[in-house]
Amino acid sequence: MLFVSYIKQSRLHTWLSTKSLKATFFDRFTFFGAKKGSGPMLNRKLGCQGFGTSVAAMTSFPPQRYHYFLVLDFEATCDKPQIHPQEIIEFPILKLNGRTMEIESTFHTYVQPVVHPQLTPFCTELTGIIQDMVDGQPTLSQVLERVDEWMAKEGLLDPSVKSIFVTCGDWDLKLMLPGQCEYLGLQVADYFKQWINLKKKYGEY
């Protein structure tokens, strides 16, 4: 479920200069400027493909409904045929300022799978994540606690601050996270229960 794919700068400029993010955001857009230490997989996802500039430098933006967009893209255990349950093995979030379109902060961690702790060759080939990356990492329960701490630190739990998650499809927050939390008996925080589906919004453009 990689979040990145190349789009031409001219098309990006047109979308962002004419549409509010509450109507459409980016079509699998590659963000540039991930912080050092955020992890090789996150840097690969956020690495620039085809243009070396920040989004904000390209154009001006109309007023947005939200103060922050939280771009999220899980990786999970997988195989052919599919294993059950799937488990999140990478949990990245990018905090994007809704006014400047600048990346202000990132959260990133790999996650230790507990039901199927050994990654399959298919999973490694698809995601680029090897066994050493998940061994000894926090479990999903621990990661969710760290996410909540990060959200609080970034001021995202302040009732006066409007933020929303952004995903490429509904899989991450409609199926993957709730499904794994239900299997493990974990609660899903309210802030994970609404999101912008880029695929759907771009289809409305």
Detailed description of the structure:
Pfam families: RNase_T. This is Exonuclease domain-containing protein. Keywords: Exonuclease, Hydrolase, Nuclease. 31% of the residues lie in helices and 16% in strands. The chain is α/β, with parallel strands linked by helices. The two termini are 22 Å apart.
Oligomer: single chain
Helix content: 25-40%
Radius of gyration: 17 Å
Strand content: 15-25%
Q: Find the count of extended strands (DSSP E, 2+ residues).
A: 6
Count, helices: 7
Shape summary: globular
Largest sheet: 6 strands, mixed
> Could you state the order of secondary-structure elements as H and E?
HHEEEEHHHEHEH
Layout of secondary structure:
Layout (H helix, E strand, L loop, with lengths): L8 H10 L21 H7 L21 E5 L2 E2 L11 E10 L5 E8 L10 H7 L3 H4 L5 H14 L9 E5 L3 H14 L10 E3 H7 L1
Parallel strand pairs: 1-5, 5-6
Antiparallel strand pairs: 1-3, 2-3, 3-4
Key traits:
205 residues; alpha/beta; 6-stranded mixed β-sheet; globular; disordered N terminus; nuclease; 3-5_Exoribonuclease; ERI-1_3'hExo-like; RNaseH_sf; Exonuclease domain-containing protein
Précis, in short:
With 205 residues, the protein is α/β, with parallel strands linked by helices.
